[in-house]
Amino acid sequence: MESIDNKILDKIKKAKRGSLFYTEDFLSFGNYKAISKALERLVNEKKVCRVARGIFSVLEQDPHLGEILPTAEKIAESIRKRDKARIIPTGVLALNKLGLSSQVPMNLVYQTDGSARTVKVGNRSIVFKKTSPKNLAVIGNISGIVIQALKEIGKDNVTDDEIRTVLNHLKNEEQYRLEHDIKLAPEWIRVIMRKALTK
Predict the structure, then answer these.
(1) How far apart are CA 140 and CA 182, in angstroms?
(2) Greatest CA span in the chain, whole angstroms?
(3) Which residue range(s) make up the domain with 39?
(4) Which Pfam family, just one, is annotated for this protein (predicted)?
(5) 85-125: per-residue pLDDT in tens?
(6) What is the mean pLDDT of residues 26-44?
(7) Residue 67, CB half-sphere, CA atoms under 13 Å: how many?
(8) φ and ψ at 29, to 5 degrees?
(9) Residues 186 and 117 placed together within one structural domain of the fold
(10) Which of 6, 113, 167, 168 makes a 20 to 30 Å CA pair with 176?
(11) In this structure, are 87 and 53 located in the same domain?
């Protein structure tokens, strides 16, 4: 009979290197406790890497750098898919994504309609904050981040340069998404975003 450890390894190895797995992904091979123990053994034997609590991977290999850990963003996206939740970057993370801040946030904060939780990844944290559905009703990837970034900067602090950067990004948003999302923004942000609409 094939051991749980081997079944888990087989499943992980069939996936692309760097794919992320959760303890629950292996429950067809045994109960939660048995799976957790098997994963513990595989981590100790260095056959599998524990990326964060309850999240595992066989890491991608770089010829020069060795094993490459998945980025915190990749982990956040993976959790989003698993929970079938919506997430939207906020705060410094939103600014960073738009190039409005060069500061790399230690904590990646996302608003979500999934569970509120904090996932530790090395010395960084991914924080999912529960928010109202209205905050997640945006349908544009770019416009959603723009709204969060501008909220972070604040109405009285936003500079002409920042507005120019934001409008440049919004040129790449589909018009119907932009029109939809403008309605969800605070009034002062609507005024800025409307400038990106092509007549």
Answers:
(1) 10
(2) 68
(3) 4-67
(4) DUF6088
(5) 999 999 999 999 999 999 888 999 999 999 999 999 988 99
(6) 96
(7) 13
(8) -95, -10
(9) yes
(10) 113
(11) no
